[in-house]
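The records we work with from here on pair a chain with its fold. These numbers are not coordinates but entries in a learned vocabulary of local backbone shapes. To see the layout at work, look at the sequence and tokens printed below.
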Amino acid sequence: YSRWEANFARILNLLKIKWVFQPEVFDLKFQKYTPDFYLPEYDLYVEIKNFLSDYSVRRDKAFRKLYPDKNLSLILKPEYTKLQNVFYEYIPRL
């Protein structure tokens, strides 16, 4: 895990939301893609990213085009920072 992924997992655990880490590999034709999390109760894949590089944007667009039936949510730095601020006191420091 990255620190952000680990903290997101801790938040999900705190909220008692079931999750699977890197649950599935998707073929995007030019590469394989493994979203960070899958939340089965919401049928939602989640990708945690600090920022979207051109490469990440291309990958995201390809995923959404090739797998329109899959729900993918991106958590970028602004959203992650909000989560961190809300849950900071509840996330154990290791």
Notes: The chain has three helices and six strands. Residues 54-66 form the longest helix (13 residues).
